[in-house]
## 1
Amino acid sequence: MRFTFRPLHPHFVAEVTGPRLQDVHDPADLARLRAAMDQYAVLVWHDQPFADDEQLDFAQRFDGVLHARTSLAVLGRNRFGNDALTDVSNVDEHGDIMAADDRRRVSSVSNRLWHTDASFVDPPGRYSMLSARVIPPVRADTEFADMRAAWDALDAETRAQIEHLHAHHSIAYSRQVLGFEFDAAERDKLAGVVQPLVRTLPRTGRRALYLASHASRIVEWPVPEGRLLLRDLIEHATRPEFVYAHEWHVGDFVIWDNRSTMHRARPFDDRAHRRELRRTTTLDID
Ligand code: OGA
Ligand code: MN
C-alpha cells in the first residue's frame, strides 16, 4: 500500500502518509487519493514542501481545471502572476503585513465566516488544496465541518422540506455581511449563481447540505424566511460533533471537498504575525 490513511475524526478527515505528492503521477495512485476524498472529504498531509508551480501542476493532475475567478482576482491582487494560485495570506506584494484597512484584506477576513469555496461561480469549486508556507507562532486554525453528516442528522420532516430548494450564492453578499462593498464594476464581475441546497455526491450517492456564507437567499422562499432557514441550517451543520479543527504547521498540505464540507479560518493576531498559505481550487466539471 503506497498510502496510509489515519482517521482524525469520527465522521471525516484522515491524515495521509506516503510519497511526496510532487512525485505522485501514476493514475492509479491519483485515483486512490480521489477515492479517499470520497470517503473522508478532507485529507491532511505533513511535510509536503510545495513550490508554487508544483502545487499548480499537482492540482491539475489531481482534478483538472482550476478556479481563477476569485474575489482577489477581481480586486487585482496576485503576487504570483497566476489567478489560479490564490494568495491566502495577510501580507502585501512586499511581504509586509497589510494595513488593517487594506481593501484586499477583506478576503482573508471574510474567510472567517463558514463557507465553501467558489459556490458563487458556475461550475462551482470541487477540491481546494491549501499549502502552508508561513505559519504564526500562535494558533491560527482552519475548521472544517462535514455536510454529509449534517444532512444525515436532520429529521425526515426537515429533509423533505428542504431537499428541493435552491440558494443564490454571491461573494458580494458574504463580503457585504462584514460591511465591505464592491463597486459597480467589481459587482458585475461577481454576479452570483443559483445552487441546489442539497447535493447528491457522485460515486458514493451520499447527500450533503450545500451551504455557505455566500448563500444570500432561498430562491423559492421570501427573503427573510430564506435567510432564517440558512442560518438555522448553518448553526445545525457546524455543531461541534461535525467539526474538525486543523492546527497548521509549515509544510502541511490539506485537500478538502467543497461539495461535502464547509470551512472557516479562526482569528489570530494578524497585525502581529505573518501567515501565508497558497490555495488551488478545481472546478466541479466531469
Ligand atoms: C481558503 C480559506 C481558511 C484559512 O483558503 O479557502 O478559507 O484558515 N482559508 O486561511
Ligand atoms: Mn475558503
## 2
Amino acid sequence: MEINQKGVLLVVSGPSGCGKGTVLSHILEDKENYSLSVSFTTRDPRPGEIDGIHYGFVSKDEFLLQIADGNMLEYTEYCGNYYGTPQSTVNSLLEKGVNVVLEIETVGAMNVKNIRSDAVLVMILPPSYEVLENRLRSRGTNSEEDITKRLLRAKEELKALPEYHYCVINHEGRSHEAAEQIRRIVEAEKHKIERNNMILNHFYQ
Ligand code: 5GP
C-alpha cells in the first residue's frame, strides 16, 4: 500500500523582499511533483516578468469579471493592486498527486485556510527586518513610495505568523537550504494519518 498520493496544497507567504521567489524557484525545478498556481494581478509587469508565467496580467475590469464569474479561489487587494488565485487548475493537479504552490500574501492565505482545511501554510522569513529592508532597496525595481508601503505591509504581515503551520528562515545565500526544508515539510505532511484514510480503513476494517 502507498502513502497518500494526493498532492499537498502548499500556501507560501513571506514579506515582500524575503526571497520567497528564489526559494520557490528551487522547489519548482521538480516539475513532476510541484506546480505553481499562476495568479492574476492588476499590477504592471516588472522587467523580465512574462504574462502567463509569472502572473496573468489583467485590467481591473477583467479581474472583477473573474470574481463575478466565481473563478477565484481567493483574492485580495495588496498595496493598491488586486491579486487572486484562479480555481481552475488547483484541484485537478492535486488529484493527480502534484503539490500545488500558492505564493500569496497573508490575507489570501487566511482565506484559503478557512475554506481548505487540508492546506499547509508556510511563512518564509528574512533573517531580520534590517535584511528585509536592504533586500527591497537593492532590488532596484521598486520606487521609494512602493518600498515604504511594502515595509509597512511586512510588519502587518508578520503579525499573521502564529496562524501559519510552519516557518522557514531564508538566510543570506542559503535559499537552497530553505527550499529543502519546505520539501521536507511537504513530505512529512503526506504521511499524516488524516491524509491516509485508505491505510486506516485497511487496518481497522
Ligand atoms: P508582488 O507584487 O511582489 O509580485 O506580490 C505582492 C504580494 O502579493 C506578494 O506577497 C505575493 O505573494 C502576493 N500574491 C501574489 N499572488 C497572489 C494571489 O493570487 N493572491 C493573494 N492573496 N496574494 C498574492
